[in-house]
């Protein structure tokens, strides 16, 4: 069997490259649980994963966007031959993928956001260099059209649709020894142009998260900077003033984590890496917008980074896949906000990291692509209640 250490990935995939530094012997040693709030693993949540139709192209570093018609648009990424321009649509009614129009620029480690008018904005990433270009997908025609370029090329950034319909892009990596991108920018769909956000209040970062809060502000948390493998600082962006301001810091520095807005308005941050690559963490924290304070919640059952987190219809959060000390995971678990407990659920059929997870209108979760120990994946799976 070919090990992941023999697979060549581009520099963007920090969360995957971190696996390579550990020897097979190191990967075989069960890691100790990270300190924090006590673990809870005495219960399980019924659920099952079933394979659905496979992507036409294996890919990792892609995006997945739920369209207004209920289909899922997957775009870009990388396979064994390089960055991809191809895009495809998943139809939940048939469980099949069909090819749609290709991006004008092949790219990976980009971001994608569904706009208020139903179009999809894809921005930046890498592909023959670090990209500043952006383009729009029209679901009615299946065609991608170039739109205005960002001021700064970047990858490992975040992109957030604001309540007024504009889109906020924050920070990221300039790549190839160029350091981080200090700027944040706003995209106006009405004009197709970007404008800078002048106040970024200090530290640039990459591999962070950005979460739209119930009050319309954006919470940016964690990430990394050169020579620092994990940040604890967090910042708030206010669309009314177009300013970033500091807020409470995470209790545990982390990057390559997930952040999920809960139904009560709090934000759950789970997993990630800490002070150096390969060191996954199990601690989870809750951010309270009312106080600006982070508090520990219970540890997850499994340490992981490079995973996905999806808010389900019953207000619980499904976490799936990722990496733990160089081992790509099949495990999945569910966070219950009412009890602050994590419970195990059925594992993925295929171990994967760098995949996407999309909540479908019928309540199932579509996981697509990613990579396992043998390389790039075209397979896709659906998670739903056990029948």
Largest sheet: 4 strands, antiparallel
| Proportion in helices | under 10%
Number of strands: 34
Number of helical stretches of at least 4 residues: 2
The N- and C-terminal alpha carbons lie at a distance of 35 Å
Rg, rounded, reads 19 Å
Mean pLDDT: 89
Which stretches are poorly predicted, pLDDT < 50 over at least 5 residues?
A: 1-32
The secondary structure category is: mainly beta
How large is the share of residues in beta strands? 35-45%
What is the molecular shape? globular
**How would you write the strand order of the largest sheet?**
1-34-31-30
List keywords for this structure.
4-stranded antiparallel beta sheet, 2 helices, 2% helix, 387 residues, 36% strand, globular, mainly beta
What does this protein look like?
There is one protein chain. This protein is mainly β and 387 residues long. The protein is 2% helix and 36% strand. The chain has two helices and 34 strands. The chain has helices at 14-17, 24-27, and strands at 48-52, 63-66, 72-75, 78-79, 82-83, 87-91, 96-100, 111-114, 120-123, 134-138, 143-147, 158-161, 167-170, 184-188, 193-197, 209-212, 218-221, 234-238, 243-247, 258-261, 267-270, 284-288, 293-297, 308-311, 317-320, 323-324, 327-328, 332-336, 341-345, 356-359, 365-368, 371-372, 375-376, 380-384. It has a four-stranded antiparallel β-sheet, with no helix packed on it. A four-stranded antiparallel β-sheet has the order 2-3-6-7, with no helix packed on it. A hairpin with a 5-residue loop joins strand 24 and strand 25. The radius of gyration is 19 Å and the shape is globular. The two termini are 35 Å apart.
